[in-house]
Structure formats: C-alpha cells, structure tokens
Amino acid sequence: MKVVGILGSPREDGNTTILAREVLKAAKEAGAETVEYVLNELDFRGCRGCDRCKTEREDCAQTDELTPVLKAMDEADAVVLGSPIYFSEVSGQFKLFFDRTYSFLKPDFTGRLRRGRKAVFILAQGDSDRKAHADVYARYEHWLKVYGFDETHLILVSGVHDPGEITKRPAALEEARALGRELAH
Q1: CB-based contacts of 29: which residues, under 8 Å, 6+ apart?
Q2: Which range marks the domain in which residue 79 is found?
Q3: Integer Cα distance of 86 and 75 in angstroms
C-alpha cells in the first residue's frame, strides 16, 4: 500500500500540515509506504492549458518540480490532500497543483487513473461555521471520483487560525490517525 501526502499549506507548522502528517504517520505505522510533498517548497507552475495531455501524451507536458508529485499521485493507492481555506477556497499553492491534475483526464473527460483508490481531503478554516465553505470539498471530491478515487474522506476543522492550534483538538488528531490506519488496509 502506497500513501502519498500532498500538503498545500504555506505554513510549515500549519494545521492542515499537522493533520496530514498524523494521517501519514498512522498509515506508516500500520504498514503502508508513505511519502509527502510540501507544495510551498516546490518550484512549479499551474496548468498552461496547452492540451498536450489530451492530444500528444497521457501526462502533463510541463517538466518541473511538480512532475514527480503527479507521478506519485498516479501510482498511489491512497492520497492525503491538505489545504487551509483562504478566501473561501484552497490555498494558491494547492490550486496550482490541482489545476495540473487536468492531465489525469482523457480527451473525453473520463479519468485516466486506475479505479478503486482512496483519498483523504483535509481542510482547516478560521471560520467557526463548519458550513461556511462546504462547497470547496464538493468541487474537489467530484474530480477525485472522476480520477479514480472511489473512496473519499473529509477532515474539516473549523475555528483554527494560528499555526499549531489543531494540537489542542484531540478529537481531530484521532480522526486523522484513524483514517491513516484505515488507508493502510
């Protein structure tokens, strides 16, 4: 079992990063092979809209530091995706990454990736209203299912703003660990 973590927070000690690392740690302890990518540390661009992934090849035509991340996501049995909510959306780093997953679509907009995989989507927001940005997950969950992630899970934590604040939420940390253990099987 290979579990890939893709961390979209610009904060090294951000709440989504902490939660994602709890998922990955639990998956590893349960026997999975894990790897993480911190998007803020990579030099990459968003999708250029060249459509070469639809006409000439089956992967993204750009070659940069996101190339191995996309390859790892393609090869993974499960992915852990994390982003804070900024201005009612995922972080800019995460959005640039996710736009590049356009290459996971065939010309007819069906998914290229193998079916039957799992995904955990982690969102943390300062807004204490859990429903304030409910549309964010729905949009990304749709594409994950198209890509081949038949089983998707959401960890949403509201009312956290300061880096590391999530460490005062034991229930959220345990939810992350439980999902990590589940991913390993």
Answers
A1: 180, 181
A2: 2-183
A3: 29
78-89 tens-digit pLDDT: 999 999 999 999
Kindly give the interhelix angle for 170-183 and 15-29, rounded to the nearest 10 degrees.
40
What are the distances in angstroms from CA 146 to CA 58, 110, 122?
16, 6, 19
pLDDT tens digits, residue range 116-150? 999 999 999 999 998 898 899 999 999 999 999 99
E runs forming strands in the chain:
2-7, 33-38, 78-84, 117-125, 149-158
- Rounded to two decimals, the pTM is 0.95
CATH of residue 172: 3.40.50.360
Count of domains forming the chain: 1
Return all residues near 14 (Cβ < 8 A) that are at least 6 apart: 84, 124, 163
Sheet holding 33-38, edge to edge: 33-38, 2-7, 78-84, 117-125, 149-158
